[in-house]
């Protein structure tokens, strides 16, 4: 590509020189020479602009191939938004993503069946020991949500823990109506579940009435079940559920960035080895994701940026 580009620039340079030569060989009239010089300058500027455009097109077109991502359902909105923007900038690149849970994503990148493993939790020591690098691309808040009719607006960390460990089973015990609490959570292997249970010190100790396999399923179940409580990524919430404050602090990006809201976790795009060890295409992906445009996209989908 560089050879073709150099030849093209040489031809363009020759064209500019020819235009200037023709102008210099014109009649001696000063006005005519001035007009001709202006025309030559305009032609030269147009030619250089065309050269820059071609060079830019060639650079963009030079990036081609595919990137595969597997992992967290909580990262679906972010991953899709980044993929669309990246493929728009690089039309010859295809980015594919499967959303099957953080554990599956780490497994896929570990065994080499995916370029990137999306994980909505920090990597475990054994995963890092297997050569997987933890690349944090954004920070997510985990919101605790209830059905909109629920009277409770705030829970302490102790109350939340006691609800999920089965000690508190009725909303009247935490200031709500006399109504059974229906505890909703994610399936084993979910990054959201792993992060939530770690943050409330209940690893493998939650008493779930339902364990669902996606963020959307949790929100839909809570929205349609009186007395239900569930957890989901902050960016996935909608008006069908009500988010609770925790320890008097609302689940907002500002509060999470300030460190005031205790339920937060990293969004990781894991690679087998460091980013610098990846192929050119994957390195270009991370340049984009961690650059201004990628971080702006993260902010637009409700996440906290890392840059």
From TrEMBL:
The species this protein was found in: Waltera intestinalis
Cellular location(s): Cell membrane
Domain PBP, chain residue ranges per copy: 57-293
Name under which the protein is recorded: Phosphate-binding protein
Subunit-structure text: The complex is composed of two ATP-binding proteins (PstB), two transmembrane proteins (PstC and PstA) and a solute-binding protein (PstS).
Keywords for the protein's UniProt record, in alphabetical order: Cell membrane, Lipoprotein, Membrane, Palmitate, Phosphate transport, Signal, Transport
Gene Ontology MF term list: phosphate ion binding
GO cellular component, one term: plasma membrane
Record's bilayer topology term: Lipid-anchor
GO BP term, example: phosphate ion transport
Family: Belongs to the PstS family.
Signal peptide segment: 1-24
Functional summary from the UniProt entry: Involved in the system for phosphate transport across the cytoplasmic membrane. Part of the ABC transporter complex PstSACB involved in phosphate import.
């Amino acid at each position: 590509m560089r050879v073709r580009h150099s030849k093209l620039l040489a031809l363009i340079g020759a064209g500019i020189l020819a235009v200037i030569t023709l102008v210099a060989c014109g009649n001696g009239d000063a006005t005519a020479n001035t007009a001709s010089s202006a025309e030559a300058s305009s032609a030269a500027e147009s030619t250089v602009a065309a050269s820059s455009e071609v060079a830019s097109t060639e650079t963009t077109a030079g990036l081609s191939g595919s990137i595969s991502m597997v992992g967290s359902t909580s990262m679906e909105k972010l991953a899709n938004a980044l993929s669309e923007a990246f493929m728009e900038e690089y039309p010859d690149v295809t980015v594919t993503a499967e959303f099957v849970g953080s554990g599956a994503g780490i497994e896929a990148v570990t065994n080499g069946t995916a370029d990137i493993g999306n994980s909505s939790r920090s990597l475990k020591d054994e995963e890092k020991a297997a050569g997987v690098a933890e690349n944090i691309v954004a920070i997510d808040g985990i919101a605790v949500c209830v059905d909109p009719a629920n009277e409770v607006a705030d829970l302490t960390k102790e109350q939340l823990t006691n609800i999920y460990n089965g000690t508190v089973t009725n909303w009247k015990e935490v200031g709500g109506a006399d109504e059974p609490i229906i505890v909703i959570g994610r399936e084993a292997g979910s990054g959201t579940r792993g992060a939530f249970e770690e943050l409330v010190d209940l690893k493998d100790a939650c008493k779930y009435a339902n364990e669902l396999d996606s963020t959307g399923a949790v929100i839909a179940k809570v929205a349609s079940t009186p007395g239900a409580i569930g957890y989901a990524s902050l960016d996935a919430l909608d008006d069908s559920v009500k988010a609770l404050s925790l320890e008097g602090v609302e689940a907002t990006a500002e509060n999470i960035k300030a460190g005031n809201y205790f339920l937060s976790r990293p969004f990781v795009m894991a690679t087998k080895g460091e980013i610098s060890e990846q192929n050119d295409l994957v390195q270009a992906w991370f340049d984009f994701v961690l650059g201004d445009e990628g971080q702006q996209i993260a902010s637009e989908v409700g996440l906290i940026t890392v840059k």
